[in-house]
Amino acid sequence: MTSPENLEDTFDPRSPEVGDAVRESSGPPSARSPSSPTGDLLVPRARAHTLSGLPRLIAGEPLERDAIARKLLIVAGVRVAIVSVVLVALFVLSQLRLRELDRVPSWQYVLVGVAYALSLAYIALVRAPTLVVPLAYAQIGLDALIVSVLVIMTGGIESVFTFAYIFPVLGAASTLYRRGTVVAAVVSCFALGTILSLHLTGEVTLLPPVPFGSTVFSFVLYCAGMGLVALLSSALAEKARITGRRLAESQSDLEQLEQLHAAILRSLPAGLITIDIEGTIQFANEAAQQILAIPKEHLIRQPLFLVVPPMGRHWRDRRVRLMAEGMRERQEESFVRPDGRAIRLGFSFAPLGNETERWLGSIVVFQDLTDIVRLKEAVERAERLATLGKLAAGLAHEIRNPLASMCASVDVLRHTLDPPEAMKRLMSNVIREGERLNNLISDFLTFARPRELNLAVVDLGRVVADVVELFRHEARSDLWSLEFDVEGSTEVSIDAALIKQVVWNLLRNAGDAMKARPGCIRVRLGLEENRPTLRVSDEGQGIEPELQRRVFDPFFTTKEGGSGLGLAISHSILNAHGAQITVDSRVGRGTEFTIRFSAPAQSALPRPDARSGGEVEAGAEVESGAEAGAGAEVKIESGAGAEVEAEAGPLPPREGDGGRREG
Q: What are the distances in angstroms from CA 249 to CA 16, 41, 44, 404, 506?
């Protein structure tokens, strides 16, 4: 049992057995310190009872069983090699039949065989952890016994093999260090002293009589030599052991530091890239690869200005200031990823140097600010809309009243007077444009006034299917086909009439975008992250990145004759529902609008039939397109994979309002 005063001598947290015991007693990874970035970077909490059975050195240093086992194998291997050389030498001598060695005694073969057997036994038994230390001490005694037999058979104290007693001492120094070396020296001196006493008593006939004085002198000399060898070898072995331990500690600290650095870089939410003085990328963390959508093998050793041109241009233009002043200027640039998605990057450079202040390159830290920019734009848009809403009511009355008077007056003049035909056409134009202006005011009021929702729990799939069917029959074209895919049944709490209006507007915009090139309009509805998500995509020309942020602004349009309120109204309707609409467009590849509703409804709201939720009409809130061609083949694909083909009829255009994509 280990006493408290000796506990310090027996505890070394760096030793393998202590580390294993601590890892076993520290509990599962979840119980470890949360402040540690990785599970392997903890300071172990050892228990005294796990160390009580460890042997100790004279100096109080614990034995390391793994290291002893490895060294025992090495010593056993060296012993086998030496014994093999001796066996070969004996065989050669027996074959040469030298006059001095006319016949090789059989005991030498027996001794060689015993040494072989013991070495093989060491190799087999050293794999048992509990036998390592006892086996090391047993090896000292058995090696001393083999040397003693060899010395007795070759002349005793005057044998030329007396020097062989230093081998057990050296072996003990390499495996058991100081304590083992002392034990080996004592055992060797005791064995040699026993041989000396056998000489003096004459009880062994193999040992010739020797003079007492010279024999004792030789014994003292041999013991002094073995003591000196033990002292030097133990000192060297102890120094080597301490050096090895410090090296192992340094290696362990280095590995832990590397793991910590790797964990920090791996956990860093921002992208980090290092470049050399030539602008070549040397390192990129995982966040950088995810933000840029570029794998590591396509980043490392590539020029920055080729992989991420906005960063490359900024670094090239400012690297002199970066080197001279250590500039840390933050920049924002747009970047189109290899997958075609446009993002907004915020990045800054910092100089990368060493302790001698030598400039080695630069560090680039960057983030994807796309969502932040969208939120900022949404706030700005909401502020603008709030201002517009305050002005809407007053402007409507101020414009509608004079407009109504003007149109009524012109109409009265047209019917009471008998103007020429040219004058009648001009009066009709005035009345028609007045009606168009009145419709525009109605659209604006619809957009600006607060929404009063008639909420009900409905099947969103049926609501969207109604609009798709209506669009299929009324807006046909030979330039595009329509695919509709619904995954499951999704019930949500919505105002069905307003949501139908939103879907209709998105489909009209998709159809108008496909006028210049044939393709497919796809409508997909399903659950994404437990939220009902509707996607309406086309294969049109797409929208420029700088215009995408304005597509939901009121009065913004790229179409001739459009009011620019269609998508703004849709955005307002969805905001009232707590839903979000986003646009993802790639020039030359098409546009996709994504609507994410709230989680599926679980309330006890009324559940009317989705088809009774309201009719979609080409009214003020819906942007209708120009007249479409007749006879288009429309393909509708259901969730089960069935396809329905039908002939769509022509859709009469709304007078005075051309179809357009908002943005």
A: 11, 13, 14, 91, 66
Whether 157 and 218 have beta carbons less than 8 Å apart is answered as yes
Bridging pattern class, strands 531-537 and 491-494 = unpaired
H/E/C letters for each residue in 390-412? HHHHHHHHHHHHHHHHHHHHHHH
Q: How far apart are CA 652 and CA 182, in angstroms?
A: 109
Residue type, 189: C
Residue 619 has pLDDT above 90, yes or no: no
pTM tops 0.90:
no
Residue 363: closest CA among 288, 455, 440, 260: 288
Q: How many CA atoms lie within 13 A of 219 on its CB side?
A: 21
**Hey, how many other C-beta atoms are within 10 angstroms of the C-beta on 13?**
11
Q: Which helix (H) or strand (E) holds 282?
A: strand 281-284
Tell me if the domain spanning 269-367 has CATH number 1.10.630.10: no
* In 449-521, alpha helices (H): 460-474, 496-513
Q: What are phi and psi of 381, to 5 degrees?
A: -65, -40
Strand, helix or coil for residue 636: strand
Cα 617 to Cα 230, 255, 438, 498, 625: the distances in Å are 105, 69, 18, 11, 13
Distance in angstroms between the alpha carbons of the first and the last residue of the chain:
83
- Binned at pLDDT 50, 70 and 90, residue 204 comes out as low
pLDDT higher than 50, residue 223: yes
Q: 3.30.70.940, 1.10.10.920, 1.20.1440.20, 3.30.565.10: which CATH number matches 456-647?
A: 3.30.565.10
Q: Where are the domains of the chain?
A: 4-50, 65-253, 269-367, 373-448, 456-647
Does CATH number 1.10.287 belong to domain 373-448?
yes
Mean pLDDT of 545-574: 78
- Give the residue carrying structure tokens 């005063």: 5
